[in-house]
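input
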Amino acid sequence: MTAPQGILRVHQGEQTVTFQAEGVLRMPHSLPLRRFAEKAVVDGAAAVHVDLCRCTYMDSTFVGTLLCLFKEFTKARREFAVLSPSQECVQLFRQMGLDKVLPVVTREAPAGPWLDLTADAGEVDVCKRNVIQAHRSLADLDGAAGEPFRAVMRVLDREAKAEAERAR
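output
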């Protein structure tokens, strides 16, 4: 049985942009999330929220993208928070040690209108950079939580080095 397809929606309020993740969210959902959130900051949004109450699963790239955005927004002195995460998300955050990193707020998502964001895997180089940045953020987690991702980054760094040598 295949996992249900994930849906990513966005609601743009006056000062807050809210994303709503539903079902299974994977790498192709990460880039639209990141692009829209980063554009929101440039356009003056004070806050970005990601509603995870209907999310049943997130892969490491999606989770790492949340972590990247949290770091970027904190640096820009903007609010970034996860809204009402599902039990599956809470458990995943605990397992990864993110329950002590990502701010979680329990509140209702805003009423529509919502715009569906299309999952994107078409721009290979941009997607690849996002995957690497997401996993590097996870590798930066303290202690055992970051260790599996430090191992992933060692492999990705070796592959990037080999690719660069082949290109010469």
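quick obs: Strands lie at 7-12, 16-25, 47-58, 79-83, 104-105, 115-117.
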